[in-house]
Amino acid sequence: MQEILNAILNDASSEEFANLKLPDSFRAAYVRRDEADMFEGVESWDKDPRKSLHVGDVDLPELAPDEVFVAQMASSINFNTVWSSIFEPLPTFGFLDRLARESEWGERHALDKHIIGSDGAGVVLRVGSAVRNWKPGDKVTIHCNHVDSQDPSGHNDSMHATNQRIWGFETNFGGLADITLVKANQLMPKPSHLSWEESAVNALCASTSYRMLVGQNAASMKQGDVVLIWGATGGLGGYATQLVLNGGGIPVGVVSSPDKADLLHSLGCDAVIDRKAEDYKFWSDPHTQDESEWRRFGKKIRSVVGEDPNIVFEHPGRQTMGASVFAAARGGSIVTCAATSGYMIEYDNRHLWMKLKRIVSSHFANYQEAWEMNRLIDLGKIQPILSAVYPLEQAGEASFQVHRNLHEGKLGVLCMAPSEGLGISDPDKREAIGEDKITRFRRHADSLKK
Ligand code: NAP
What we know:
Strand content: 15-25%
Mean pLDDT: 97
Low-confidence stretches: none
CATH class of the largest domain: Alpha Beta
Shape: globular
CATH superfamily of the largest domain: Medium-chain alcohol dehydrogenases, catalytic domain
Oligomer: single chain
Number of helices: 19
Distance between the termini: 37 Å
Bound molecules: NADP nicotinamide-adenine-dinucleotide phosphate
Structural class: alpha/beta
CATH topology of the largest domain: Quinone Oxidoreductase, Chain A, domain 1
């Protein structure tokens, strides 16, 4: 691994990368099949990723013709890292076993250790015989849409492919590792002005937000749209807020502390609601929602922005969906990609149909959407929202922080990168975009520690 790292640090040629010997095994963060029931009887909140996420050596798999090995310099924690490591809503080993039944190449994935992680930035080490557009030595970021290009169902929009999967969640050999295995059509060029860890945190959350708001497949935001964003400084929300501002919309950001409200204001989001300070109780008991609280929330939105939201950016799920459906403007859209607080959703259908609202589902992003999002980051129009960095050995601790909502933005993980700040190949471009903008979330998080 040291030779690989030296080649990366010395910017070796493609030929030199191609001639590097690959190790038989590599370091990775994984959950174990024999521990999948370790949290039985434990409340979700108390399931601790620090107990279930291990770091150790795993064998290097064989490379399929349409795949590449990437030396991972950095990765990130996503909420799916949390789901995998608390084995909710179900252990991920079932996904791996299903993939194994599909093909001989798929069989490689059904192991007793599941390497998780769905983001990454690094350098291509080897390409399979059918890979045309990438070569060893290319600096890349990785998006997590894993599709079989021979499946006809994916050729309109690959998110509709019957065998669409999320890399490092529904496949093995994910991003929290020193080497990862991905399909060539998961690669995108690394933004030249960002460090490895700044490049590694974007693809999953930013592309998901892009499809939800900007692409043609979900809410298709237009200039002037008011967009209510739950968790507006979280992983999805931090990108959603920037996309709304960049696209001429008007964000209304919901957060849960004055510090997060300050961060939102500094991003340029003027309309902010602190849900903790307002103490909304959308559910008066576990089975009953309180419409008067929805109304209080709707009034608050009108008071901060003057009108109802054309789009509601939904992901908390059960706790908020009733309020989201109520608060959306007549003819508006509630675009949902998740249900962190529970997936059995209840809302009052009268508010939906009588006001001609629509609920739009969205899930990650196809290659084109992820590529367009990566381009916006490369152009410096959207900034990474990296707020803290952990070594791979502490992937469990980082996941715990996300599980307990103790973080802002995104948490980066250093894999092969020996320290932070490496990998910036165009410092002039970085200066032109602005260090302050690029490091806003990091500086804010650091200032809170003081
Ligand atoms: P995150 O970084 O934890 O941010 C989510 C934010 O939502 C939190 O910071 C919190 O902000 C807010 N929140 C959490 N619980 C809430 C509640 N009960 N009511 C209101 N607000 C709440 O997570 P993320 O990366 O943004 O992901 C959010 C969800 O989307 C997760 O369930 C994840 O699995 C899912 N997701 C799905 C896809 C997809 O492709 N389908 C992609 C990415 C993520 P405040 O405390 O400041 O309000």
